[in-house]
Structure formats: structure tokens, C-alpha cells
Specification:
By secondary structure, this protein is α+β, with helices and mostly antiparallel strands. 30% of the residues lie in helices and 32% in strands. The chain contains three helices and six strands; from the N terminus they run H-E-E-E-H-E-H-E-E. Strands 1, 2, 3, 4, 5 and 6 form a six-stranded mixed sheet that branches.
Length: 120
């Protein structure tokens, strides 16, 4: 799985979680350089969601620069910012090296703890 595949996989994980939790997903952008990736609504509140995905043993990270830029944009639209960090491991791996290389259409362990507020 290359970085684009990994990013898209993380978006699908977060999208499913949002739908399962009653969010209306308004837009999803899979481009790597677009922030936020997901625009959603729940109970009349607009959400800007930044998704970052990494391979085992890491988790996706939100950089201060991205957080600041998305926060400024969200203020103009009265939106709430949330961050979704996703970690993906190859479930067929029996050591750290193999687990850190998820394969397309493979089996995965997913580390995702839901939406987190942006740091203040």
C-alpha cells in the first residue's frame, strides 16, 4: 500500500464511523494536500475533520500548521474542528516489519479511537 492508498483507506475508516454515529457526510476530499478532508454535519453543527493515517506502529499526526490553517477556515464557517488519527497494521504480520506494511485488499488491524478535538 503506498501513501495515497493508506490515506484513502483511513478516510474510509473515518467515513464509516461518522455514518455509524449519525453524521451526515457532506463532502470527502481524498487529495493529500487538501484540508480538511471531510465536511460533515450532526445536529445542525458543521464539522471540519482532518484525517491522517500511518502504518504500524505509528498513528496519523496533526501538524500545528495544518491545525492553525483549518481552525482559521472553520471560524469563518462557524464549524467545529476534529482530528481523526488512524493507524493500520498488516494483520498477517508476525513481526513489526511485516506489520508495518499493509497490503491492498489484505487483512488489517486498525487503531482508531474516534474524533478528537483540535489542540488549543
Amino acid at each position: 500500500m503506498n501513501y495515497e492508498d493508506l490515506h484513502y483507506f483511513g478516510l474510509k475508516v473515518v467515513y464509516k464511523d461518522l455514518v455509524d454515529n449519525g453524521f451526515e457526510v457532506l463532502n470527502v476530499r481524498k487529495e493529500l494536500d487538501v484540508n480538511p478532508q471531510i465536511l460533515a454535519r450532526k445536529a445542525e453543527t458543521l464539522y471540519f475533520i482532518v484525517v491522517r493515517t500511518a502504518t504500524f506502529p505509528d498513528m496519523g499526526l496533526l501538524t500545528p500548521e495544518v491545525a492553525a490553517n483549518v481552525s482559521r477556515h472553520a471560524m469563518k464557517h462557524k464549524a467545529v474542528c476534529r482530528f481523526a488519527s488512524v493507524g493500520v497494521a498488516n494483520a498477517k504480520g508476525d513481526n513489526d516489519e511485516i506489520m508495518s506494511k499493509p497490503e491492498i485488499d489484505g487483512e488489517y488491524y486498525i487503531n482508531y479511537k474516534g474524533l478528537m478535538p483540535f489542540p488549543q
